[in-house]
Amino acid sequence: MKFKKWLNKVTKIFVVLGMVLSMCFTAGNTNTVEAWDSGIPHEFTRIKSITYPKWWKRKCPQITKQWSTYMCKYNGQWSYCLEASKKTPSSGNYAASVIENNVMVRKFLYYGFGGPNGSLFRGQALTDDGLNEEETGYLYTHVLLSLAYSGDMCGANIDDLERAGIGLKSTWSYVESLPDPSNGANFSTGDTAKFTATFDKANMIQTTNTVSFNASSNETVQLPLQSNVTIHIAGSSAQQTGGTATVWGGQSFYLTAPLENSPTDYTSGTLNSSAKGKFCALAISDGNGSNQTHGSWTQESVDTLKYSVDWLDFGWIDLVKKSANESITDNNGCYSLEGAVYGIYSDGTQVDTITTDKDGYAKSSILPVGKYTVKEITASTGYDLDEETHNVTIVKDQTVRANSDEIPGNDPIGIEIVKNDAETLGMPQGDATLEGAEFTVTYYADYYTKEEIAQGKPEEDKVEKRTWVLQTKKASTGQYIASLNDYWKVSGDELYKQDGMPTLPLGTISIKETKAPKGYLLKGNTLNVTNNATGTTSTVEDSNYVEQITKEYKGAKLQFGNDANELVVTEKVKKQKIQIFKSGYRNGMSEVVKGLQGAEFAFKLKSEVDHVGWDNATVYDVVTTNEDGLATTKYLPFGEYLVRETVTPKDYYTNPDFTVSITKDHSEYENEEDQVKKVVLNNRPVETQLKLVKQDEETGKTVSLNSASFKIVADEDILDGGNIVYKKGQYITQKVGGKKYDTFTTNSDNVVVVKTEYTNDDDEKGEVFLPLQFFAGKYHLEEVKVPTGFIGLGKTQSFEMSGLLDYTKDEDGDPIYTVTVRDEQPKGEIKLNKTVADLDTDVDLVDRSDLSKIQFVLKAKENIYSPVDGSLMFAKDDVITTENSGAIVNSGTEVGNGVYALSTDGHLDISNLPMGVGEAQYYLQEVKTLDGCVLDTTKYDAVFKQSDYTTKTYIKSFDIENKTTDFEFNKTDVTGDKEVEGAQLTITDEDGNVVDQWTSTEKVHSIEGLVVGKTYTLSETVTAKDYVKATDIKFTVKNSSELETVTMKDKQVSFTKTDVTGEKEVEGAEITVTDKETGKVVDKWTSGKDSHFINGLEEGRTYILSETVSPEEYVKSTDIEFTVSKEKVNEKVNMKDKQVKVSKLTVGGEEVTGAHMQIIDEDGNVVDEWYSEGKSHIANGLEEGKTYTLHEDLSPLGFNLANDFTFEVTKEKENQTVEMIDTVTEVNKTDVDGKAVKEATLSIVSEKTKDIVDQWVTGQHIIDLDKDVKAQLEENGKAEGTYMDDDDSMVMFSIAKNKDRDDYTLMQVKDGVTTYANIDIKGNETTHRVQGLVAGEKYILRETKTPEEYVQAKEIEFTAGEDENQTLVMKDKQVTISKATVSGDEVTGALMQIKDEDGNIIDEWTSEGKVHYATGLVEGKKYILHEDLAPTGLNLANDIEFEVSYAKENQKVEMIDTINEVSKVDEKGNLLKGAEMTVTSNKTKNIIDKWISGQHIFDVTDEMKAQLKETGKAEGMYVDDEDSTVQYSIAKNKGKDDYTVMFVKDGVTTYTNIDLDGNETRHMIQGLEAGEEYVLKETKTPNGYATFKTQTFTAEEGKDTVLSMTDEDTKIEISKQDITTKKELEGAKLKVTDKDGKVIDEWTSGKQPHMIKNLTAGETYTLTEVIAPKNYKVAEFIQFTVKDTGVAQKVVMYDELLPVKKVKTGDNSHYEYYLMLTGLAVVVFGMVYFRKKHA
Hints:
Blueprint: H1 2-22, E1 42-51, H2 54-59, E2 68-74, E3 77-81, E4 92-94, E5 96-99, H3 103-111, H4 133-149, H5 158-163, H6 169-177, E6 186-187, E7 192-200, E8 205-208, E9 211-214, E10 220-233, E11 239-248, E12 252-257, E13 266-267, E14 279-284, E15 294-299, E16 306-310, E17 314-323, H7 326-329, E18 341-346, E19 349-355, E20 361-363, E21 367-368, E22 370-378, E23 390-394, E24 399-406, E25 410-411, E26 416-421, E27 438-444, H8 450-454, H9 457-461, E28 465-471, E29 473-474, E30 480-483, E31 489-492, E32 497-498, E33 501-502, E34 504-505, E35 507-515, E36 526-531, E37 537-541, E38 545-549, E39 551-553, E40 557-558, E41 565-571, E42 575-582, E43 584-585, E44 592-593, E45 600-605, H10 606-612, E46 619-624, E47 630-632, E48 636-637, E49 639-647, E50 658-662, E51 676-681, E52 687-696, E53 709-714, E54 718-720, E55 723-726, E56 734-736, E57 739-741, E58 743-745, E59 757-758, E60 767-769, E61 774-775, E62 777-785, E63 796-801, E64 804-805, E65 816-823, E66 827-836, E67 843-844, E68 855-860, E69 864-865, E70 872-874, ...
Parallel strand pairs: 7-16, 17-24, 26-41, 42-51, 52-65, 58-59, 66-77, 67-81, 78-84, 85-91, 92-98, 99-109, 110-116, 117-127, 128-134
Antiparallel strand pairs: 1-2, 1-4, 2-3, 3-15, 5-14, 6-9, 7-8, 8-12, 9-12, 10-11, 10-12, 13-16, 14-15, 17-20, 17-21, 18-19, 18-22, 22-23, 25-34, 26-30, 27-28, 27-35, 28-31, 29-30, 32-33, 35-38, 36-37, 36-41, 39-40, 42-47, 42-48, 43-44, 45-46, 45-49, 49-50, 51-64, 52-60, 52-61, 53-58, 53-62, ...
């Protein structure tokens, strides 16, 4: 086991030696934490037994046994018993646990003998008791550890030991004041200080939690800070931003950082710290409870300290609010993007509010990164609240956008107008219709009143205006309505739409009827608006209605529209009266009877009769002719009426049914007689002028361009005066000018007739008047020639010429009968079928699912003329709309002005196209195609030519295929020969949307369907490795289906890194390339032996080449800015690194070892850090062109910290050298005579920071020098080597003789820390080399703990030398305190104190009969010498104020104790015993002392008496009844018969005066203070004596006071007198008894009164006359009380002569009562006596 342990130790030595020799003292070394394992046993060994001094037991009888112990070791360290009374465990292997909560145990193990400090008891040896220094130190440490751990001191306590002269109490107090040994160093969060930042929104900063540095108060840790991070010391205003911060043990701290450009998360390396590892006190037990627990220690290695910070990252959210329907909101003052309020939420909690500006933009305050939701709280003017929640994720230092497309408020239902008849309030009258009424609706994009619109204000404001013409149609409900929809719209602007449905934006509309339906009057209509919510109705004349559309509530329900209101337009139908005049032939008579009365006529609508028959049709009126043959109807509504003569006067022919039409309102006629329509009827055959009119069926226009020819056929026999003119079926011919005509042709622009055709150029175009009048009868027409452009050849049309004579007549008054013939036009129809080609490409972008996006325009290829009148219908290239042509779209949709969209499946069918004058030429041309298709610009001709007069529809069909666009994309190197693989390519459109994205391969990439006319950008979004990102290529897609190729070429940029010679490649440099414009890093790498191809570059952009981390021993180069040209040529970039050497020198120019050096940049960041190794250092982490500070963070212990040195690293490619000097400041501590003073604790305090930078104890032992080392020093003045210290650590040392001095310089290196010290040949420190000073800064040298018996010297202010070494000398003086009696004898047992001006006790001791050297005094301060407790018998002296001068001379302060003695004697001057005395303070009224005079104090033995007789002195020690040891000293009082005895018991000294019997003579009053006034009082007087009067006295300062108190005898003078003569009577036998009946005195009276002395004052006595003088009666007894006075007290008893007769004498007391009292007193007295006897 021992061999193995030795082997382990040797192995450690060689390992550590190797480390020392290699000088690997780097700051980055990590120490392994080796915590004590309580489960592992270690060796416990008894070394030797030692016995404590025997006089300890003798002087301290409380010690229960002769104290002895074993000196032991545990795990190589000294071990001590912690329970003194128990036995020491046997040697063996035992486990030990750490003693956690006993600081005094830790301190005694640390500072006591064998501990790491070991300063206690150094140099002390109880040699007289056979104990050397080692044994003495072990003994004292053992005693104090046992007290600290268990309180076991073998029955004694520390005060017992103190009284016995074993002075360990002051040692205990001293150790209490020492700092606790290192508890190790860690943070409150463990070995790593873990910080987590939180968002302090109130201060807009991020703040971490607070962490404490758990270490001794003189230990530090250095924290490198990020450049924008601030450290705050909790509880103070101290803070620092950037650089390296120092935190002291016990301090708590936290970090803050800005929100913007927040620091990255940070984890430090191992932190530099002066802290030691944890000092562990160990409790060793062998498991046997009867054996001692032993205490030893271990020193753990230093913990690895780090810190980490989790910082928050921050960014912003911005928002752009847009209208979701800009066609509604653009240029509309009713809408505003400004003022929308949005809430920003995190986990449901609102964290911010933003409000949009006029552009709809809003931006948040800065927020932590993470996920948020944005939701609108308040909508802006005119918009609905956006119910959508927008999710966004904030990223660091970026603004993330949330777009809000909001639906503007609008009326999605719009307008619905109901058209009613004014009279029926519903259905139309007559043949009138409510269908076809037109309303003009005008919309204004702002709010206006009706008056403002009338005044033209919207036109002044130039607001947007749209107009729509709506036409009423009959709905399925039977109502005639018009609504805001394309179905009812007949003309006007494009409708506003929302989600494809017509809508009205906010604003103002006006509604006006601009065209009345057939049969109704336009003027005079009314518009009734009924609010369905309120039921109120408002009426507007002539339907000029104005309403504002306002946003009322959620859902955009408006105040206007069919959802809230109903618009009803009522209109007057056209009406006129009809007057019938009836005349005719009477049967069988030839003359005409005019004014035929009694004919009845019924009026019914012809259309209704045709539909339901005469009998079921409604009768509109029935009239009967008057005597004048006239009958007038009421006003009949618009229409064609069938009139039947229902009653015919007798003998008259019944008139045939006839029709009459009302086409105008009576108000439309200017002449009053025309306001009634007149009809003349008679029954005779009628001859009428016949007019034939040719009209177009579709338009009703008269056909004037070309002629139509007709033949007329009689449908019955035609009579004239009863004769048949034409037989049924016969063609009508008329002979004019000798020519017969059977065909009648209308006049026209292009009239052409044959010889049998009749035409008249004088007739109106499109008409023909037959030259001769017609006879009444039934006929039909046959159209034998149709006008060009019409169909209907062979068409027939019947008509009847009756007795009806309409008021239509020619200028001669002859009636005209008109027959109108209408013909249809043939129509053209176009049918188109559309398909889209599909290519085989990598990507197909064409959406073929909906071909309705394809649109064609229809135009006239040539002019097209009307077959009606030859007018130009469509000029060449005019668009053909359904409105201007009457065309009907059967498949597809008309979407605009002659533009037609295909159906979803690609069909278009347009019919009812006009064919003009026999021929029409149209063409279709594609105006819009699918995205990705080539627009087909071909004009597809549709020529329609009439081939006959019967075909109604001519059809033209087309099958058309659309081609798609076709592209190929190549990615090559600059040669164009090699395809570059791995590049990510992206095509984006003009709006930045990604169209396609792919990674390049060895093959080209093909895309079908890029949109024609659009410009696309081909971007290299991810560059192929080792290639430069190519410039974007923009290309525009042509309207072509030909294959197009786009080629993008990539170049390369290479980089090399060399030293300043340019010849050596520098490896290990970390290089980044940053985009100059964006600041984004595009590539980073570590330089190697070969050149590097830079990735992420883009052509045409400028970059910064930066060396982010330079290789060790190289300076970081200046950034190189370069621009990648767009030329397709490869490029090269070279960067060179220089070196900077740093030397750390002494004043003599020698390289210093062990200085902790740092190079700090301008932001305070440490860029390089190292320990000097006795040679120059090549700096790391420097950058060219920057200024740095060379900072000595920690100088070797013994050197001053040099001032920072600023230097600039030039940009010149030359190496540089920087030097820094370390100076030395030494301190020498001596007394006033120049003798070295040891054990003074000195400290150096920084005047700037107030922190202690160094602290030491003078003369402390530094190193043990063995013989070999001493021999080397004597031989050559130098020595060096290594040793293992008590921590089992390897220490390297080097010693050299100081020039011109008697001491040596010692350099030690342990655990990478270098220490310099001055020592003597014994290894003790001589002058101290101050540690931790900064050259040029001011400091204060203070004596923080002065050695006992020395005064603390005045502090010395000094400035640490910057260029030269310096030596400071601090001298300690002494102040002696003398405590003496008036006679000059030094007093023993006075408890003395020295207090400072604040009342604090600085020094405290008990006088020992000799002068005392004061401890704890400070030069220049005033103190008070205070006697806290005078020895019993001496007066407490007044305080003495004194000042310790700065003069380096010793001082003496003297204090006198006076004595106040009291003698208690009787009248003869003899000692009077038994008097109880008190002394009371007149000031406090408290009793200061009390005693009984003459009490026995001490048994004076014969031996003592012999000594006193021989020498006048005697002294010794005895054990009193309390088993306490008492020391005594007896001395003869000069000039007195008594003696002064001094006792010392339990540390208390008492003085008193005794006689040789040991009884107190003169009492020495205790507790008096000089100068105070007191009262001496006898509280209890000895029986028989009068109390002495109270005596007031002052304890005089510097003068003894002797008080004498004499007690007088009490005196009772008893006189026996004749009651009459008052003369003394002789012969009476008298006695005096006390309260118990005891006879005190008895006598026979004489001539003089009897005197009794020494009766007890205050007691009552009884005077009894036992026998009366002769002839006298025995007197009654007399009781008297003795007064407390020395003056004689008289008692007189009178006797009466015996009477001749019975005379009662004495008092009238009841003797029975007195007898009973007497008996009771006897019983009580007996009981008391019995108890005393047997007590």
